[in-house]
Structures are given as structure tokens and as C-alpha cells.
Input
Amino acid sequence: DPRFARSHNQALLELDRRHLIHPVTSFRGHERHGARILESGEGMWLTDIDGRRVIDAFAGLWCVNVGYGQESIVEVAAEQMRRLPYATGYFHFGSEPAIRLAHELTQLAPEGLGHVFFTLGGSDAVDSAVRYIVHYFNAIGKPEKKQFIALDWGYHGSSSTGAGLTALANFHRGFDLPRPWQHHIASPYPYRHPEGHDDAAVIASSVAALKAKVEEIGADKVAAFCCEPIQGSGGVIVPPKGWLKALRTACDELGILMLVDEVITGFGRTGPMFACEAEGVTPDFMTLAKGLTSGYAPMGAVMMANHVYDAIADAAPEALPIGHGFTYSGHPVSAAIALEVLRLYQEGGLLSNGERVGIRFAQHLERLRAHPLVGDTRGRGLLGAIELVSNKGTKAGFSADLDVGGRLSALTWEKGVIVRCFGNAVIGFAPALCCNDSEMDMIFERVEGALDALL
Ligand code: PLP
Output
């Protein structure tokens, strides 16, 4: 009965307004506007409680890389829940899915990252990496090395530790815990860089900024440099090719560790399994989440270089535990799901489909450069963005009271496509790797329609 459905949906919206605190959402704004409540998904498509179908060009929150409705994942999860829904990794216990997943990740990651610690998502993966880095420098007798350097526009989660490395204002307004151990340098943001047309200059300025910051703090005090290979939540900022490699070399010269946060860029999002791979870089720590389970269950991971692992292992007395862990580290259901997701990327052909359709994605982005509102487009693989400006010549943005992000978010939803609209008038795209050509064309047709409506 449609009348019953309508009143049921109204009740749901009302309960949501009253009780549920949504992530990164204004409390009063949510009470006023309510949520768009989603009910089901299939491939690239989502259906809300009113039966409205939209194409999801953002893979949920850049995580559902395999697309919705993958039955084989459901089967694997149900089977694992039936057999053993939970096993701790504490006290020398373990479970087969977690062990097999750790092994598989070490086979896929850059050589030398031979050890894996599982978390529940990306924020606690970053936290765990930070704690292990601190532990490592204590282990090797350099306890004064406790300062961390990250990038402006970086996002590394919103737990107390990772949020500190995050450099986005929204995550610090009203959450001003002192962060004396965290420092930031300029982002390699070609569109907003004075020499952005010159890749070598952008790379050189990042290397120089890192060296200057380390000198300012004192080389004997800096533990690590932390970055995303492509900055996601900052507005899909794509550094020039060779940037990550140059920063790896600089970290080595400076005697600091490199933590590469591949929470978004991992698992085929930028083409290869990991973005590090394309640059031939092996970080000392790599953080993963999102595409690891493709959002079918929560899970993140920290990959640790062998030399770090060995140093910690050799220094810690065998009779004492290394005090870091979570109840759900290596959760067997999440691990079983991740193993099936990894199979879909490889044997299921999703990684290669992603690379193939990524070419069409790049062509659409390129074409949009001609649009009167578009100042810049950028991307790699199936991760991309368009940056809107009010004046292409001066690259001026829009005043905050115009709420371009909010209007675009409403307009794209009206047109039947989900993208991410960032405050700095950037539209982010991260379609699932299962996207086909006509779905890709449809995404851009609908986004263009929204842009025209904004004019
Ligand atoms: N690191 C990066 C690069 C991210 O993009 C995110 C989330 O978007 C995180 C960490 C935090 O992950 P989570 O939201 O799973 O805690």
C-alpha cells in the first residue's frame, strides 16, 4: 500500500532527525533537511526508500570498488558467520581468513612490506601506524623522534590521532586538542601552484618544503612524513608523476620514515592495485581500508616494512606484549569478505575493467574543461575531480554564502547521480570498477546537466 509506505518513510525520516548523529554533518542542518535514506543497491545503482534510482559515481564513500550486490561476497560472509563469526587475535589465537588475507596482501603490496596489522577502518589504521612508528623509534634508541609531518589538504581520518595529521579545517573547528607533534607542508596542488604547469618545479618545491620543515623541527626529532599518493578528501589533488618517488628519496636522505596512506588510492582505484606501485615506491608503512572489503564490512590494515618489524621484534622482551590491538583486529568475517573482494579484483576482471573504463573517464573529464564553470579537471584511474571557478582567468572560487557545494549536491541528486561536492567547489568522482561505458557516459551527462543548471 503506497500510503502505508509513505507514512512508514515519514516516520523513518523523523526518527533519523531525532536520534541519529550523522558523520561530518551539521546537527541542526540535519534536523532541518533530513537524510536521503538508501534501501538497496545493484552494480552502479542505488535505490532510496521512495523507490528513486540513482547512479552512484562515488562508490558509496570511495569504497564500494566492486559495486553493489555481489552475491559471491554475501555467500562467503554467511558461510564464515555460520562456521566461526568471531575469533580474537589476542593471546596467540587466530583464524584462517585473517592469516590468508595477511599473506595475500604481502604478495600484492610492494616488496618489503611483509607484515600486516588489521584494524576496523582507515582512521585506526593511521593511528596504529603512528603508534608503531613511535614504538619503532623507541626500540632503536631514538626516543626523541616523535614529530610527524603531513600535507596541507591531507585527510587521514577523524580519530584523535589521525585527525591531527588531517589538515582540513572542518575536522579541527571546535575539536582543538593540542597537537604539538604534528606539522604540515604545502600540498603539491598543480592548479593552485605558482609553477603548476611545470611538474619538476612542483616536485622540487615539495622536496624543498619537507627539507626546510625537518630542519626547522630538527632532524633528530622528526619520525615520519605521512601522505596520500593522491589527496582525496582535500579535493582529489593529483601530484605530478614522480612526486611520490621524489618524496621517498627525500625521506631516506632525511632519515625519516614514510607512511603512505592508500585508504582511498588502494585496490585499483587509480589503476594498479596500489598507487605506490605506479611510482615504484615502497613505503615503510602503508595504510589500507575502503576497497579492502569494498565496504561490505568494516576493515582496515597497516602494512609494515620488514626492517621496522624486525627492529621492534628484536627490541621487545618476549615475555611482554606489545600493547596495541583491537577486539576486532583480523575479524574473520571481514577477512573472508576481503579475500573474496581481492578475488573479484583479479580473477573477476574488475581491476582490468577499471583500467579500461578509466580511459573513457579521463576523456569525459578532459571534455568538461570546456565548460564555462570548470577551471580544472584532474584524475588517475577511476579517481577524479572537476574544480569549479567563477573566473577561469583569475581562478577565483565562489563566496561561501553562495553554497555552491550544497547546491551542486542537490542538483546532481535531482539529475539522478551521486558525486561528492567538496566545499572548495570541487566535484569528486570515484565510480566502482564494475562501471560500463554507457554508465560512465550517463554519469557525465547527468553531472553536466547539473552544471548547466547552476549557470
Ligand atoms: N585516510 C584516508 C586517506 C581517507 O580517505 C580516510 C577516509 O576517507 C581515512 C584515512 C579514514 O578512514 P575511515 O573513515 O575508514 O576511518
Summary: The pocket of pyridoxal-5'-phosphate is lined by residues 121-123, 126, 155-157, 228, 232-233, 261, 263-264, 289, 300 (CB under 6 Å). The mean pLDDT is 96.
